[in-house]
Amino acid sequence: MKKRLRKKRRLGEFREDCFELTFEMSPALSNDDINSLTDMFIDMIESNGLQFGGGGNSLWSGIVQGPCRGSATESDRRTVLDWLNQHPDVLNAQAGPLRDAWYGWSS
Prior knowledge:
3 helices; alpha+beta; DUF469 domain-containing protein
């Protein structure tokens, strides 16, 4: 396959990796505390050059990927998971393995 088609289809050297992320916020948090923790989470994601697609209120789930046409790395995965695990108001944080963001999902 020609390079142009590999890029268009995000294959080979143009593959983009992401990982699934789930976590729960403490049920003892007020709405203001949840909003504050959410803002800190978003700041951490953005400061590491990542994007998060998903959401929640007290139970969050989604995917983390690199910017634009970039990939998340194993280092990114550890950074996000470490940040969540170090925060006392975050419970049950789990990050899935890196997988192909475009073709790594089963139906």
